[in-house]
């Protein structure tokens, strides 16, 4: 690299690669170890990221990023990007210590590969899922001219607002505790082995984290013991401060030249936000760019699995992962790197999770969408009419000692199915409010982000709000999809989208504010996009609650520093949701069609 640091790569070169048969370079940059892949991946993937790409033949390149596995240097959490002026060609020797980031490391690697790998055709592609998705995105600012095609897949993009670390300021306890345990082990020298700070066999994550108590207890000697740099950084930076702002790669996505194919999953519990917002930022900031989006019925990275035709009780009736690889990913790289065939994919290829089918859109979100508000009304009704009478607010007691579980099937780690799970378990709790429409007279397709507008109060000085949009299947419904397990899904409350908002950030992510106890206050935020057709006879259901444990840490419900809070700071609070003129709570959905 331009500062003298050496990064480790593994290459797989087709045996016939030479001047007469040159191949493009297809690269993944990763914090999860460069390899080896050939033998261990065979026959599922071969040396490439998929079986399909392996069979096409490329020069596959895997690189350990700085400070990981066999690369030198210091690992940085979502490395902050340099200002545009510092990018581009390496500086001349003697020009002083060269600044670097992931964009310059990618640039320098490409420069090295082109010169040192015989039989390359001078064209480079980059792809990666999740953290490697972030590195794929980071190849775009000041991109090397040989870089022609980039596919950020579930890319980590904005860790405070919507990806792994926090959502709207609320800390993702279960994932972060697990992830930083092995990702953040001190390593003074390059190492080849996987490591972790402590070895725990958690069987019931709900009980484990309840017993753990306030989050500061995670630094007890038997756990992080103050050795985990990233864990401490996450907790120390509990507002959208300079640390997080520097890690928002979206701000740097200008002047994009390579073709981009961003990929994400509607059931991705880690970086769904990243996929949607990487696509959006490139689209907005680069009107002329070749920029496309694919969203399928996938958990984190499920499109790379040999088969993805079912999830939870639902069957998609086709191998959606293979469909994606055969019709989108492989032709994308073949076209832009080998000039092979054509690539006629639309701007957005999106899976409708209610109709169980792929749809094409010329823009995303579709321009034809009209916004329709669903008001949280008295007697648990969800209605298109704004409330006209001053009915009393609904209320519940949110008790940090008895938080609402995020799933009915608690395990040691995250239950990946929680984003599609039947929510009847939650509806039965006294601290979950429910609002439901009548059965729909016609199909209703929702396409795009969802607007939450709540009027709330708390008897405390802070509170979290979790809002869920749910598709209620009719009691006597035929199975909504092929259902080989013959499960009885009648009356099931199928989760379509949900997310949390930490109330102290309602006016600013940078400057949190306390609530005035018991004063109606507006909390507005956006839920990630959906493409879901609610079928005729189904109902829409909205649930509201203030805990989602242990997916999200508990809010003490007092305006205190949560990272250093003591057990005694966690207090019960009475939460009210208002539905009166002037304080109408609603979920606004972008509806397509009549
Ligand atoms: N989504 C993952 C991650 C990235 C950064 C922090 C924590 C988790 C990943 O799978 O790479």
UniProtKB/TrEMBL annotation:
Matching Pfam families: Peptidase_S15, PepX_C
SMART domains: PepX_C (SM00939)
GO molecular function, one term: dipeptidyl-peptidase activity
Domain Xaa-Pro dipeptidyl-peptidase C-terminal: 330-588
Signal peptide limits: none
Keyword set, alphabetical order: Hydrolase
Segments traversing the membrane: none
Protein name: X-Pro dipeptidyl-peptidase
Record organism: Hymenobacter coccineus
